């Protein structure tokens, strides 16, 4: 039996809000049916894979199954329905995701791993979907999991009994409207990011398909390139520097008034938002004078992964601060007449996955890079290409920053609005208001 220290599954709520079990907020609920492989009545059947982690449905790949007409009619999805993942989840994703049905979906049913929740007329469907989404995202849903060796299942009886916040119908609608608006803004920002990414890639294609110059071209081992450009083997263009020569555990940690003047980089540091283009920081800083065995790389060194998924993700960065490397990373020092950023763009455009050994764990070594052909443009053209691509990067990064800010806003608003920590005055929301 579920017991809570707070009044609802999301926390305490204002005294003028009701607290009700989920079951009392529904007019209907029903388990799904996977149907048969074939039969006279074929319909679209949604699966767990059609639920996203963001409270919406992905209808791009729907299974076609045979169901009896009466079953199809019973399981037909209406606008305002909520699909609950009753079985599924994984190590990093609790069971209990929800998908909000935004429009009627006739001739669509759902599988036996999903469960239909149809809100009562007194409950705003979008509001309830946000509440259930929040229950899943906070991780409190873990208290309702029953895990077997192969599958995570919801204790559905306890799920239906969990106490949830219920403000007035007008406030429910207002809360849902604010959160829907933030989600719409996130969608627009995400689309802007994707468009800016395409623009950046188009600029890189123009640069390394030699569309930024109309000078005559000549044939080389690197292909047909502008007359003033030079084809270089990897060994001529750069030298591979060694990775970490000391274990990170040998680092003397910062103490007292110590201020880091160098950083130790691991593969995970590629994921830090500040390192989207250049390595500007890592999780581990240290004082270089106190750690003389750690070799620091020159600024502008190109960093790539030596093994693992980071290679396939095409992570290529240059160093903007003094860095010592983990042995799973590789450092490339380009020759003096090649700008590090020019080479980084070229390597990123060519895609590291092209150079990977074909079997087992992805790996890169000297022998994979030194025999490859690269190009060097004249100094002024290098500078021009770097300036143009860098501007495209800055535009994309600025939009990504706005997207992250909106995602942070959504997370905080969900907590504050769904628990009543911040109240919404429904009368202040105009019909055409947007965020």
Keywords, separated by commas or semicolons:
elongated, 9 helices, 21% strand, Helix Hairpins, alpha+beta, Adenine-n6-DNA-methyltransferase TaqI, Chain A, domain 2, 435 residues, 5-stranded mixed beta sheet, 24 strands, 3 domains
Question: What is the percent of helical residues?
Answer: 25-40%
Q: Note the total helix count.
A: 9
Identify the CATH homologous superfamily of the largest domain.
DNA methylase specificity domains
Based on CA atoms alone, the radius of gyration comes out at: 28 Å
Which residues form runs of ≥5 with pLDDT under 50? none
Q: Which secondary-structure class do the elements indicate?
A: alpha+beta
Main beta sheet: strand number and arrangement?
A: 5 strands, mixed
Q: Beta-strand level of the residues, as a percent range?
A: 15-25%
Q: Do you know the CATH architecture of the largest domain?
A: Alpha-Beta Complex
Report, as a whole number of angstroms, the end-to-end distance. 41 Å
Q: Can you tell me the CATH topology of the largest domain?
A: Adenine-n6-DNA-methyltransferase TaqI, Chain A, domain 2
User: What's the domain count?
Assistant: 3
CATH class of the largest domain: Alpha Beta
Q: What sort of overall outline do the alpha carbons produce when their principal axes are compared?
A: elongated
Query: In terms of quaternary structure, what is this?
Result: single chain
InterPro entries: Restrct_endonuc_typeI_TRD, Restrct_endonuc_typeI_TRD_sf, Type-I_RS_S_subunit
Protein name: Restriction endonuclease subunit S
Keywords: DNA-binding, Endonuclease, Hydrolase, Nuclease, Restriction system
Domain Type I restriction modification DNA specificity: 44-186
